[in-house]
Amino acid sequence: MTFNDNARVGGNTAKRRGRNGAILGGGVVGIGGIAVLLLSLFTGQDLSGLLGGLGGGDAATEESAIENCETGADANANDDCRLAAASLNLDQFWARELDGYRQPQLIIVDGSTPTACGTASNAAGPFYCPPEETVYVDPTFFGILRDQFGATAGPLAQLYVLGHEYGHHVQQITGIMERYPNNGSGADSNGVRVELQADCLAGAWIADLPQQVDENGVPFMQAPTETEIRDALDAAAAVGDDNIQRQSGGAVNPESWTHGSSEQRQRWFDTGYQRGARSCDTFSASGADL
């Protein structure tokens, strides 16, 4: 997904925060480690304990603004700026869609940083921390997947992940998380319904992206191509519980699902993309229709 080069994106409030030194780099983590991190990235579960010895050390945590992030051209050239710029799109979309919307904080993680929900790093993957109303993303994870392993982690895949986490923020501030607390795993569980709804909300936002404009009325982004949408759907399928179970060598067991199947994640993303945020009521759907 491409930003228009002359779009103004400098009004974002994203911050960079972290300890000195990266969690990954220099060949420290092998393919097995990347597999663990890939699961973390898309399931929102911190599996970094499986890696061992990858902590960021005791260096002080520092926070700063995202630099060199003023135009759409900057966003196209840099993952940090792309995510920061996309936060403007997300806030604009949700302020229009939801009365009383309040924007979350977006933290671009540099190395690692402590949070109320555990350590944020590229080992934990992107996640939303409800007590802080903050989304944490370490963009180096996208670079590792893209540059070293050829995985789908292009611009629209990145926006899908960010839109999914902002979907969790919407669920938090509208009381959905409180009304439907975690009741364990399973294909019909609240956890699966929460995640599928976040996929749907991400799809609704992505469909609206070409309609959003900067302070001068310049559209932030160009319309997504069919190839980019296919990549987003492929990313949604890759992180289905059934696919992850197959890739890990185990049997497909719906009773252990926490995020939904590949087919469900694709379908709910597409539902939001085609029909908008008001079509994303996964909680009224029967188990058979979920």
Write up what this structure looks like.
This protein has one domain. The protein is 43% helix and 10% strand. It is built from ten helices and seven strands. β6 and β7 form a beta hairpin. The longest helix is centred in the N-terminal third of the chain and has 19 residues.
Span between N and C termini?
29 Å
Main sheet?
Answer: 5 strands, mixed
Helix content: 40-55%
- Given the helix and strand composition, which structural class is it? alpha/beta
Radius of gyration equals: 18 Å
Q: How many distinct helices? A: 10
Question: Which helices and strands appear, and what pairs or packs with what?
Answer:
Elements: E1 15-18, H1 31-43, E2 62-65, H2 72-77, H3 79-97, E3 105-109, E4 112-115, E5 118-121, E6 127-129, E7 134-137, H4 140-149, H5 155-173, H6 176-179, H7 190-208, H8 226-238, H9 241-247, H10 262-275
Parallel strand pairs: 1-3, 3-7
Antiparallel strand pairs: 1-2, 4-5, 6-7
Transmembrane segments: 21-42
Keywords: Membrane, Transmembrane, Transmembrane helix
Subcellular location: Membrane
